[in-house]
Amino acid sequence: MVLDANDREVIEACQRGDWDAFRVLFEAHKDRVYSIALRYCGDESAAMDIAQETFLKLFSSIQDFRGHASFESWLYRIVVNRCLDHQRRGRRLMPFLNGLLDIVSAPAASVLQELLRAEMTKDVQRIVGTLPPEQRIVVVLRYTEGLGYDQIAEILGCSPGTVASRLNRAHKVLERRLSHLRVRGG
Amino acid sequence: MYKPEIDEVLARHLGRVSAPQELWERIENPQASVAVPPVRSLRVKALIAVAVMMVITIVVFQTRRRTVEVEYRLTQHNAACFLCHAGG
């Protein structure tokens, strides 16, 4: 994606330390960053941490951004690195623990409603969460952001062939584990 | 072999969501979000505290029961000794 004149102005204002410009940049990209974090780690609290860290990193290093690269790819790279760092810090059990705590602490009726409403999405999210990190991030970039193989390869610093191979392996696993959702019409 | 339906299922359930309103507040004031522990971590701490209390209670109960048993056996042993020595 090539930056238009308006985006370029906003980024230049950010590089001069204009806080209002940061806010504009945040509003333009907050859903994208939060969605990737949430779909990757499957936990709202951890997704907030990742999104916060991503924007703080973005604001602190925007001086390093050179206009000839794609801003979106640069931003994606920051959020992907935060997601992978978060994984390395060993918080895999938190989504499970938080889910357990939600069930323990919330009133029974609302838990039931929530379970019914979001059961399928949670199922998919949970099964995606069992994929190895390098496959999971490809799935998230592909389906949450709708990116092509070339753009995913650019963000992850690998070849499009590697992206295709990881996605193919992820598909095979998901195909098997999600078969019950398709049977139920999910 | 990969089937295209999986594309549809993933696209439907892994779509974009809206970021919570408080995200900007956390970015504007990152120290505050660190200083004030989230409700979730308070819940985790409460759960850990309850678990620790339960373990302590079980350990104390078991130790006390063992002490009572030992005291009882000692009493019986002493009584037996007394009978033997009294008889001798």
Describe the model.
- The complex is a heterodimer of chains A (186) and B (88).
- Chain A is an all-alpha fold.
- Chain A folds into two domains: 1-105, Rna Polymerase Sigma Factor, Chain: A; 108-186, Arc Repressor Mutant, subunit A, CATH 1.10.10.10.
- Chain A has ten helices and no strands.
- Chain A has helices at residues 5-15, 19-41, 44-61, 71-88, 94-105, 108-129, 133-143, 149-156, 160-177, 179-183.
- In chain A, helix 1 (5-15) packs across helix 2, helix 2 (19-41) packs antiparallel against helix 3 and helix 4 packs across helix 8 (149-156).
- The longest helix of chain A has 23 residues, at 19-41.
- Chain A is globular.
- The relative contact order of chain A is 0.10.
- The mean pLDDT of chain A is 83.
- Chain B has 88 residues and is mainly α.
- Chain B has a domain at 39-88.
- Chain B contains four helices and no strands.
- Chain B is elongated.
- The mean pLDDT of chain B is 78.
pLDDT under 50 segments of chain A (min length 5)? none
Extended strand count of chain B: 0
Largest sheet of chain B: none
Largest sheet of chain A: none
Low-confidence parts of chain B lasting 5 or more residues at pLDDT below 50?
none
One letter per element, helices H and strands E, the order of chain B comes to HHHH
Separate helix tally of chain A: 10
CATH class of the largest domain in chain A: Mainly Alpha
Name the structural class of chain A.
Answer: mainly alpha
The overall average pLDDT of chain A, rounded, is: 83
Overall average residue pLDDT of chain B: 78
Q: Could you write a compact summary of the structure shown?
A:
Chain A contains ten helices and no strands. Chain A has 186 residues and is an all-alpha fold. Chain B has 88 residues and is mostly helical.
Layout of secondary structure:
The complex is a heterodimer of chains A (186) and B (88).
Chain A: H1 5-15, H2 19-41, H3 44-61, H4 71-88, H5 94-105, H6 108-129, H7 133-143, H8 149-156, H9 160-177, H10 179-183
Helix pairs in contact in A: 1-2, 2-3, 2-4, 3-4, 4-8, 7-9, 8-9
Chain B: H1 5-13, H2 22-28, H3 30-35, H4 39-87
